[in-house]
Sequence to fold (419 residues):
Amino acid sequence: METCKLTLRGQEYELPVIEGTEGEIGIDIRKLKETTGALTYDPGYGNTASCRSSITYIDGEKGILRYRGYPIESLAGKFPFSQVAYLLIYGELPTPEQAREWRRELTLNSFIHQSMVNIFDNFPPNAHPMSILSSMIAAMPSFYPNYEKEDINTIIARIVGQAKTIAAYSYKKSIGEPYIYPRTDHSYSANFLRMMFASPAEEYFVPKVFEKALDLLLILHVDHEQNCSTSTVRMVGSSMANLYVSISAGISALWGRLHGGANEAVLNMLQMIYADGRNYKKYIELAKKKDSGFRLMGFGHRVYKNYDPRAKLLKEAVDNIFNEIGINDPLLEIAKDLEETALRDDYFIEKKLYPNIDFYSGILYRAMNIPTQMFTVLFSIGRIPGWIAHWLEMRNDPETRIHRPRQIYVGPKERLPHI
Ligand code: CMC
Fold:
């Protein structure tokens, strides 16, 4: 067994080394406290592997992303979202028969429990759809109380199936229109778009180009290994909390603007630059000044130190789709100017800051008439199968223990109150 030597205060220790299938090396510190008395210090967990996982592989230096071994380029735009969701959750792409059955299962499970619809009605009209989505999924164990004993596959189909219905209903609620029910003859993405835009008075025939674009977007979002929301799902689930509430916690973690909320923030930023006479250079300069509190949203990544492969696929898709439907969006021009200028700027070059997935996704959602507040909801819907895959992997892993990081205490030494 390969080991690594650690010298601490003059004493030498040997620590086991583990290696992943792609040659990633990890120092196994599970016995560190016991043998040396010391902890590791890693705020933000940038150097900590919290588990072994066989779901997603990322090489941030080379810009590689693979789901279950398949390069993202071989899946995105080539499969419907439901089949890639199946791959993530069950480990293999479905056979044609499994794909049909899974799609049917998802649609049959996409109806919201009628009593849950009543809660829905009590949200204020301007409620943020992320708040509605996380609350409704957290409420599911109240309506399906058999969560400890029920077949986990039924729970999975219910969460994946209902997420898009809850999302579309939150939009209908905000515009005061009646809810539209899902249909078994529509794909996952087409069902979502129809529930958003059809009304009892008028059918919405989902344009094929939008259905394919949404499939692509959801697939690009489906997993990204141990990010903030996925680690949250694993952490909550490690206490033996049920799948519904673990997923709801993931949605909350995703909402922040440094994570999934960045797509909404990017669009707001592009609109702000547009309103400011398209003066994008001013905002590049502002992003370089630390004390300005402004960052170029949709730029930078903890893991990618090269072009995010998801952003590359999205940029190509945006160009193709905009040509196909003949849209000209001034915000796309601003985004491209920002990108081009930033990639030539020493600040962004030195810090290896490239556009990430959120940089172009909002422009595509906007072309489909999806309101800005729904962008992170769509990120969540795409990410749910990935979170489920991690929750299952964590639960089935014999090495899983309740997640419980430590800390280095830096507060006051013992003292007594004056009485
Ligand atoms: N604009 C300007 N400077 C930046 C940016 C940016 N977007 N991102 C990072 N930096 C600078 C940062 O100030 C720091 O500089 P210094 O070394 O002088 O202190 C350096 O680059 C490293 O940044 P960091 O914040 O230490 O890196 P991190 O790994 O902790 O954060 C990040 C990663 C994605 C939160 C960050 O790049 C960021 O805030 N980006 C904008 C928000 C965004 O687009 N988030 C979406 C991420 S992709 C979707 C997802 O998976 O969540």
